[in-house]
Write a structure and sequence with these properties.
The chain is mostly beta strands. 8% of the residues lie in helices and 32% in strands. It has one helix and 16 strands. It has one helix at residues 2-21; strands at residues 34-37, 43-49, 56-60, 78-82, 91-95, 102-103, 105-109, 121-123, 137-144, 147-152, 168-173, 175-178, 195-196, 216-219, 224-229, 232-235. A hairpin with a 2-residue loop joins β15 and β16 (232-235). One calcium ion binds at residues 61-63, 71, 73-74, 76-77.
């Protein structure tokens, strides 16, 4: 009996390794990319698989008038796939959209499948769209020639398994992933000028709170740069 159990466990283990490897996941560093239409042709989504515990429904976010976007109403969004119910390779034609349009995709995590399937919705694009303020989708350009691959993570805060983006993958032609630029301050041809300390130490009271982290001061007499972090001023 024990041998039989071991054999079944071995086969189950092999099957789970195989299924984990048998579908594509978009590559790292594409987290938080937006999905942008790049031709006037039909956008056809192809389901590429999952290894998720949670049952996830994939939607294209639409407004009441049927154009892409978020109007705060989930009921008029377009259902595309369910990661457990849809056939691998099945396709849905999303239609045609003007070049440059962002298509926002959402997964709804059905809460019945496990303790960690919370009934949340997660979105393609930047982290601020998601309830845990973390990115939940990767968008890999040219996964195949002119075909992008999108992969979702369905766990709130990545608890308990982390962010492996293995919970629903689909691909489509005629779109591209676009990196969301973070704001930066550039002073071209000029300088950013720190406060100077004239040989003194920076004051501890100026480096106490989380909002102080990143502050910098410069001791021009001794040539020391001070930067505030969680353990106080550090010098270089
Ligand atoms: Ca909507
Ligand atoms: Ca996952």
């Amino acid at each position: 009996m024990k041998k039989t159990c071991n054999f079944i466990a071995l086969i189950a283990g092999l099957f789970s390794s195989f299924s984990a490897l048998s579908f594509p996941i978009a590559e790292q560093v594409t987290e938080g990319f937006k999905v942008i239409v790049n031709t006037n042709s039909n956008i056809i989504a192809t389901y590429q698989g999952n290894s998720a515990t949670c049952s996830n429904d994939l939607y294209l976010m639409l407004k009441e008038n049927g154009t892409p976007g978020d109007d705060g109403d989930f009921s008029n969004d377009l259902f595309i796939f369910n990661n457990h119910g849809s056939q691998l390779g099945s396709q849905v034609n999303l239609g045609q959209f003007p070049v440059g349009t962002e298509l926002i995709f959402r997964i709804f995590v059905n809460s019945s499948s496990s303790l960690y399937c919370n009934g949340d919705s997660f979105y393609t694009g930047p982290s601020g769209r998601n309830p845990d303020d973390h990115t939940h989708a990767r968008v890999q350009n040219d996964w195949q020639p002119n075909e992008a691959l999108v992969s979702f993570e369905d766990l709130y805060d990545g608890i308990p398994d982390g962010f492996d983006y293995n919970d629903l993958s689909f691909s489509f032609a005629n779109v591209e992933g676009e990196r969301v630029e973070k704001p930066e301050i550039a002073i071209k041809g000029g300088y950013f000028n720190f406060s100077t300390l004239s040989g003194n130490l920076p004051e501890n009271q100026d480096c106490q709170l989380e909002r102080d982290y990143g502050r910098a001061m410069f001791d021009e007499l001794n040539g020391i740069l001070y930067i505030c972090g969680p353990f106080g001023w550090i010098s270089k």
